[in-house]
Amino acid sequence: MKIKSFIPTETVSMAIGTIRAHKFRSSLTVLGIVVGVMTVVAVASILTGLRSRIVSMVEEYGTNNIYAFHLSTGPRMGDRDRSEYMRKPLTAADSEAIKNQANAIEDVANVLYLWRLDSTLKYNGQKYRSGFLQAISASYAQVTNVSLEQGRFLTEIDDEHKREVMVIGPNVAESLFLNQPNIIGSIVDLGGRPFEIIGVLEKRKNSFFGENEEDNALFIPYQTGRKLSPISNEMNLHIRAKTGMLMAGLDQVEQILRRQRGVKYDQPNNFDLQTASKMIEQFDSITMYVGLFAIAISAVGLLVGGIGVMNIMLVSVTERTREIGIRKAIGAKKRDIVRQFLFEAMTLTFLGGLLGIVVATAVSYVIMFFLPELPASIPVWAVVSAMVVSTSIGLIFGVWPARKAANLDPIECLRYE
């Protein structure tokens, strides 16, 4: 009598039956697979969520923006050498040159950092010490898409007359004024000088861990800042390119700043230019190393899981020696035996991968529950890759046990006790 070859469905059913018969042993066997898959999927979900948040934040400020500073920014900040700190800061003259000479540029905003001034804000006995004091030009609102919750933004008139007026962030308004419905016109003390509150910024929709630099902002007119602190000179230029002309604008800004700062043709830039796309690329370069570290950890787990699967399958071959002999005696071919044990190993690791994805999903939701500011989004590619890799582990590490089972002598198998 010739036995019919096992089709994959029947083989998988037998494999699941064997796994169910040894639940505890099977669970311990795939533990490494579960840990490996869980690590990769959980890290991928967190990094994907963070990247999505970064992209949204950058887009909210403007995808056509260019940011100029005299020092390197982003991941290169840690690589600054002593000579870089000797660079001269950007100036208002650089800003004017860009506005007048770059036809691909729509507008430029000056942002002067007033590090040397005490940024403590006082009002009716209350103090706010976490303010981020900056002197900015009126064009900042248009360049960075600022929205106001109350009042108005700084104007060119405020700047020209060096008025002592201020626009504050939502955190400042909430902490200093204790949720008063309307604070426009209130007088606050900044470094012993009275400043009138003329506007309150609206909180940005997208933020990182619930906070945004503008939430603690203390914006005063650019010329007012120069008057209060003539020695402050570190300045950032926020530059908006015309629609569809970002790369042309970037090239023009670079050439103008090189001329303004006397950089020779054979010398590198002594300033830094950033765009939205560059910021995202820098984030990707940072997360790449995190991803590689996660892959290294998961590889160890998968290797341990694979060895465990191979070991348990070898034990299974020994335990089922008589069964193998009976199957061969009634007509089962080598390929039938190989297929049975391979599918059993692949089913085992597939279920381990599936469990790893479920655990990773649960971990992601737990993280979002306790840290809602930390987004997590499980990418489809991570799920598909995890299932393919985990199943492949079963295929690879199941080959030796399957071949060993297929090569057993049926007569010796039937004699086995």
Overview of the molecule:
The protein has 417 residues and is of the alpha+beta class. Helices cover 54% and strands 15% of the residues. It contains 14 helices and twelve strands. Strands 1, 2, 3, 4, 5, 6, 7, 8, 9, 10, 11 and 12 form a twelve-stranded mixed beta sheet that branches. The chain is elongated. 36% of the residues are buried.
Tally of strands: 12
Principal-axes geometry comes out as elongated
- Rg computed from alpha carbons, rounded to a whole number of angstroms: 33 Å
**Which structural class fits the helix and strand makeup?**
alpha+beta
Tally the helices.
Answer: 14
What are the low-pLDDT stretches, counting only 5+ consecutive residues below 50?
A: 1-7
Mean pLDDT: 82
Strand % is 5-15%
Give a quick account of the main beta sheet: strands, pairing sense, barrel closure.
12 strands, mixed
Q: Which range best describes the helical content: under 10%, 10-25%, 25-40%, 40-55%, 55-70% or over 70%?
A: 40-55%
Q: Report, as a whole number of angstroms, the end-to-end distance.
A: 26 Å
Can you summarize this structure?
The chain is an alpha+beta fold.
Topology:
Elements lengths: L7 H14 L1 H7 L1 H31 L3 E5 L22 H10 L3 E9 L7 E3 L2 E3 L3 E5 L3 H4 L4 E4 L4 H5 L4 E4 L1 H8 L9 E4 L2 E9 L15 E5 H7 L6 E7 L4 H15 L11 E4 H44 L1 H9 L4 H37 L9 H27 L3 H6 L2
Parallel strand pairs: 5-10, 7-9
Antiparallel strand pairs: 1-11, 1-12, 2-5, 2-11, 3-4, 3-8, 6-9, 7-10, 8-9
Helix pairs in contact: 1-12, 2-10, 3-10, 3-12, 3-13, 4-9, 10-12, 10-13, 12-13
